[in-house]
Amino acid sequence: MFTEEIQLEDHLVRIRMPDWQRLLDLIPILEEKESYGRWSGEEQQPYLIPAEEVRHFQDLVYDLGLVVVYDWSQWEKGHTAWRKKAYDFSRMDVPEICKMITLLVRADRFTEGFLVEAFERRVILRILLALRQKVPYERPL
Fold first, then answer.
1. Nearest CA to 108 among 50, 63, 53, 56?
2. d(CA 79, CA 75)
3. Which is nearest to 129 in space by CA: 92, 95, 104, 99?
4. pLDDT level of residue 136 (50, 70, 90 thresholds)
5. Considering just the CA atoms, what is the radius of gyration of the chain in Å?
6. Which residue of 30, 52, 78, 96 could cross-link 92, Cys pair, CB 3.0 to 4.6 Å?
7. Is there a contact between 104 and 62 (Cβ–Cβ < 8 Å)?
8. Which residues contact 32 (CB under 8 A, 6 or more apart)?
């Protein structure tokens, strides 16, 4: 499920803690794991098989409605965060974290292995750690 950017804050306040917890339960798994995919196929046409954790993460963020409809390809803050190896995602608010998740998930559709790289660079783990500090989400006054 996609969520329109204009409806994102209303959507986020309706997500209950047990639903957030489904996503946050990935943290201890990601803290231990290092490899998130493997290449297969012939040399001329290799393809990436993502690890179960990657597929599970994708399913969860769609299921929770955390994939946002916005122009992710032009979001400079998100692209800057991606380029910085040690970006502190706790500097983002929850809607921005959702936009960052969207950028990573959507970019993977155009660049095979992008999301796996985000897992292996610990970007997804750092995003989830930042999210854990901020949920349950309450709309700002």
1. 50
2. 6
3. 92
4. confident
5. 15
6. 96
7. no
8. none
Mean local confidence (pLDDT), 38-49: 87
- Tokens in use for 56? 């599970």
Checking if the pLDDT of 138 tops 70, the result is yes
Domain limits of the chain?
2-134
Go through 87-103 and write b for each residue having 16 or more CB atoms within 10 A of its CB, e for each that does not.
bebeebebbbbbbbbbb
Are 115 and 105 contacting, i.e. CB atoms less than 8 angstroms apart? yes
How many other β-carbons are positioned within 10 Å of the β-carbon of residue 73?
11
Mean pLDDT, residues 52-58: 97
Task: Check whether 139 has a pLDDT greater than 80.
Answer: no
